[in-house]
TrEMBL record:
InterPro entries: Homeodomain-like_sf (IPR009057), HTH_AraC (IPR018060). PANTHER family: ARAC-FAMILY TRANSCRIPTIONAL REGULATOR, TRANSCRIPTIONAL REGULATORY PROTEIN. This is Helix-turn-helix domain-containing protein. It comes from the Bacteria. Pfam families: HTH_18 (PF12833). Coiled coil: none annotated. Keywords: DNA-binding, Transcription, Transcription regulation.
Amino acid sequence: MAIKTFPENLSQNKGLPIRMVTPEFGRISAESAAQYGSAQRLPYYFFLFVWQGSSSEVIDGETMEGGENELLFALPHQVRQLASGGHGADYYKLGFDNECLARLPKKFPFLLNPLNRQKISFLPDAALRLWNTFKILKELLHTVDSNPELILAYLNSLLTEINTAYFVLHKKPVAGRLDKFLGFKLFVEDNLTDQPAITEIAEKLALSTDGLYRIVKQHSGVSPKEFITDRLIIEARRRMYNEPNTSVKELAFELGFNDPGYFSRLFKKVTGKTIAAFYQDLSL
C-alpha cells in the first residue's frame, strides 16, 4: 500500500522534510491534528525523547512506555495512534523522512530495528548530549530558512548517539552475522506479500537454511518462518487500522494468502483475537 511522504505543510524547514515538537514549540492546532484521524500510518521516522517525566506511545496497537532519559521510536509504515493523555514535563518529538536520511554521510543500522526493540535507555552523560543536540535542532527549526546542511549535521550527530545506545547493551555480534540479519529483514520487507520460501531467502543471502535459522534466531529470538508470520500479522493489523472496511477475504489476498480461512486461524493464533473481534475493538 502506498503512503504519502512527509506532509509538506508540517515541515519546519524550506529545504528539508523535518519537524520537531516540544511542550512550547511546534504543536499543531486541534483542527490540523483532526485531519490525520486517531491513527496514522507513518510516512516518516518518529522519535520521542523524554527528558523529564514519563510518556507513552501506541505503535502497531502496542503501548510503549518511556521514562526519563529514554527514547521511543517508530518507523515508516508503522501505525501510530494519537496519544490520549499528556507527555512528560520536558520532551522532544522529531519526525523526518528518507529524504533527510539520503543526505546523511552514513547509514544507521538501528533504523532497521534488528534487535526488535523500539525503546532505548541512555546513561546520564549520553542523555545530556542527546538533549543538547535536540535543543540545537529546535533552535535551527525555529526559522524556516535555516541552512539545511546545519540541520543535517546535527541530525547526523543525533542518530549517531542513538545508534550507539541502541547496540551498547547487546553483545557485539560478528559484523557479517548482523549484516546477514539486516539483509534478511530487508528481503522480507521488500517481498513480504509474496511470502518467500525460507530456502529462497537463504539462497539470496548465500547461506544454508540452517545458517539462516541460527542468525535470525540469535537476533530476533524466533525462527525465520515465525519472523515472517509475525511480520505478516503486524502488516494485517496496520491495514485494518487504515482500511477498517476491508473484508477478510480481500485482506488475506492482499497479504498473499490463498486461503482466507487459514489466514483467519493464523491471525487468531498469533494475536489471541479473531479478526472480527479486532475490528470491533477498532470501532470502540
